[in-house]
User: Fold this.
Amino acid sequence: MSDTPKAFPPRIFSGIQPSGGLTLGNYLGALKRFVQAQDDGTETIYCMVDLHAITVWQDPAKLRHATRELAAGFIAAGIDPARSILFNQSQVPAHAELAWIFNCVARMGWLKRMTQFKDKAGKNAENASVGLFAYPALMAADILAYHATHVPVGEDQKQHLELTRDIAAKFNHDFGVEFFPIVEPVIEGAATRVMSLRDGTKKMSKSDPSDMSRINLTDDADAIAQKLRKARTDPEPLPDTLDALAERPEARNLVNIYAALADITPEDVIAQYAGQGFGTFKPALADLAVDKLAPINAEMSRLMQDVAEIDRILGDGAARANAIAQPILEQCYDIVGLIRAAR
Ligand code: TYM
Assistant:
């Protein structure tokens, strides 16, 4: 191997699970940034990771609905299926096939350290599916099947992306090749970790039992406004520096949400609202959120009227994704020593 790492052309890949609906966290931490990446002109590949979703039990009818609704969310948020490749994971066999190779590269000790597995499996790890444990190897396969170089995600996926880098490096090392790129996580912006509206120390999540803790992209204007007005805060007005919010997680979260929705920095928000109480700030935030999210919500509902069209878009995306991933998988098999018949 040469000393200078091989340069791979820039290609962005990311995925979202179709388990439950989309939250404001998914939107600001991921979707909105996926649209920016697409609009910047880099090649973008976005995936509804249905094989990841089934690592915990999913009702089949609900899974189908959630996958289509997620596709509608991508498109409503600004993903153009002509410019980005948009598809569901299970339609491209290379993901599952490459995941098997990576199951044989990743080490038990690496996977045992994954905090998402510990959180999701909880105290009952013995009863968790093998798929839930092996999940990060499938995630590495999602990315590396395309030789993707950059992966925009929220903060909670950082550890999985470090594992993806470890898997790529170990594969390259074990086989003496520079076949897989060492991917760069792209964790940027004001809202890489949107917190619960009820508890500023917990991540906003679709699995939180309290619906008041999150904003769903399917919430109507009244629900969005009500949830933001009732969001937990403290009695102090907003300070004039961001540092002064260090011990005020709920206030900091609302400032970050405002900044991300308005495409400004948290410092700009503070400059605008220093000295104002939440009686002023929360209604302003609610108006901004409704303004930005209501059109997405309306467009999602419109797109969901025609699921055949959504399925067609996903099928088309899968064919384009397959055309990239299948040759990479074949080369990988060849490197490993698996015989491919001449075709
Ligand atoms: P998932 O489906 O849990 O979340 C999708 C994306 O949304 C981000 N996100 C958040 N960002 C900020 N604040 C929050 N509260 C918040 N909640 C979620 C996540 O960081 C993520 O970017 N394992 C992944 C899916 C996946 C994937 C991949 C991602 C599978 N294969 C390959 C990238 C590349 C997951 O469960 O994301």
User: Anything to note?
Assistant: The pocket of tryptophanyl-5'AMP is lined by residues 13-17, 25-26, 29-30, 49, 52, 139, 142-143, 151, 153-154, 156-157, 160, 191-194, 203-204 (CB under 6 Å). The chain has a mean pLDDT of 96. The longest helix spans residues 307-336. Residues 11-192+306-336 form a domain with the Rossmann fold fold (CATH 3.40.50.620).
